[in-house]
Amino acid sequence: MSVDQVKVTPSAYTYPLLIKQLLHTPMATAADQEIVYRDSHRMTYRDLFARIGRLANTLSGLGVGQGDTVAVMDWDSHRYLECFFGVPMMGAVLQMVNVRLSPEQVLYTLNHAKADVILVNAEFVPLLAIIKDQLETVKKFVLISDEGGDMASFKIPFAGEYEALLGQASSQYNFPDFDENTRATTFYTTGTTGLPKGVYFSHRQLVLHTLAVATQLCASTEQGRLHRGDVYMPITPMFHVHAWGLPYIATMLGLKQVYPGRYAPDTLAQYIRDEKVTFSHCVPTILHMLLSSAAAKDVDFSNWKVIIGGAAFPKGMAAMALARGIDVFAGYGMSETCPILTIARVPPEVAADDAEGQAEERIRTGYPAPLVDLRTVDGDLLDMPRDGKSPGEIVVRTPWVTMGYLHNPAASEDLWAGGYLHTGDIGVIDAKGCLQVTDRMKDVIKTGGEWISSLELESIISDHPAVNEVAVVGIKDDKWGERPLPLIVLKEGQSATLEDIKRHVQKHADAGHISRYAIPDQVRFVDSLAKTSVGKLNKKVMREQIVG
To answer: Domains along the chain?
Structure first.
C-alpha cells in the first residue's frame, strides 16, 4: 500500500518554524505594549522590532553571517531579549555565556563554541581581559554599558559600544527564510563534574517549545494560568536555558515585560511592586532570598505567579510562599531539554483553604506538556508501573530536546542510549500521569537495603519550623553501606537539636511517608550551603567538604 504525500502548490509558502515567526502576533496586536529595563529604559514592541533590525545590521557590518556565533555576556536586559531574536533570525548562532563561571571555564566555552563576536557588559570586561589573549576564534568585541562607556579606559579593542552602534544602523533588515533545523542557540551545562557540555537548539525546537509550554500554562483554569494581562519578569538568568524559554513565550503573547538586570532582593521587590509584576520563574534559593529580604516584607505578592524549577522545591518553602499569597508551583526540565517538560497543577478537588494539600500538590514535579513523551524505565528501558511508587530512570522524547552535545559524539550517544534522552533523574509516575522526581541517580542514598530519596527527606526536614535550608547527602557507613546526613541552616533566632530533627522525621516514617531508614543518625548545622553558579545545591562540593 502506498502512502499519499501532501502535494505542495509551487507558489505556496511552506512556513518554516523560525524564531522570527513568533513576532507576527505581538507586532499586529501589541505593538505599543511596554518593555522595561530596570529604572533606566522603557520601550515598546514596535521599538523592539526596530532595534532587532538595527542589531542585525550592526552585526552584519561586523562580518557576522549565517552560521557564525555571537556570544553575549550580560545580565537580564532588553538588549538580551533583542539578541534572543536578532542573532538567530540572521541565521547566526546565539551563545549565552554563563558569566558566573570561572574565567577558565568561560574561556573554555567561548573557544569550544568557536565564538566569532562577543557582546560584553562593562561589568564583565575585567573577566574578559583575563582571557582575551587566549581566545582562538573571536574577531570582534562590542561593549555593552548602561552609561555609554568610555571604551578608551578598557584594554580591549572594541568595535564600538552597543547603543552607539545600533543608533548608527538602519532598522530595516530582510530576515531570510532558511531551514527550520538550523542551529539557533548554544549554551553550556553547569554540572558539578568535568568540563561544561555544550547543548544546542534549532529554530524548530525553540518555536515548538514556545507553543507547547504556552499551551500548558494558558490551559489552566485558574491556578498558575498565564494570560495576556500578565506582567512578566524573569528571575532565572537569560544565559541559563533561555531563561527557561519564557521570554519567547512572553513576547509571542505580547505581555508587558520587565528585565531587572542583576538580581538583588530590594530591586526585585521594587519591580514586583511598582511594575505590577504577575508572572516569574526562579530556582528555590532565589525565592528564599527574596522572601527573607527586609525589602520584601511589606510587598503585596497576592497577584504573583511563580514557577519554581532547577532544583527540588521543598514543602516548607512552598508553605512560606503560599502564606504570602504567591501562586507558586513547580516545573521540571534540564539544560538538555530546552528546558520545560512538566508543570505542576493543583487538582480541583483540593480546596483553596487546604494549606497542607495545596503545598503537597504544588511541589510535585508535574504533568507533561503537550508533545512530551515521558517514561520511567528500568535498566532495560522497560516501563515501570504507573502506580506512583515504583521508581525508574526518567527518559524523554520531545520535538525540542537537544540532539546531542556540541562536538562531543561519545557523550551524545550516552545521552540518547536506546533512542530516548536520559535525564539522570529517578522518579515515579502515578495513574493520572503526574511525575514526581525522587532523586538524581547519583544522589540517591542506598541504606538498609532500601533506596532513600534525598529530595524527599529534604522536603520533610524543610517543614520543621526552625529549618531555613537543608541539603541531604549520603555518607559511607560500615554497617548500612550509606546513611543520610542532613546539612541544616537554621532560621535566625531559632534552635534545634539532632533529637528534634529525628523526632520530626520519625513522625513521617510512622505515617508511612518515608522509610524508617531515612531517620538520620546525625545532622550538621551549618551557616550556609554550597551552591552552583545558577543557585542549585552543589552536593559534590558538600561531600568533599564532609570528607575533608
So the answer is: 46-197 (3.40.50.12780), 445-547 (3.30.300.30)
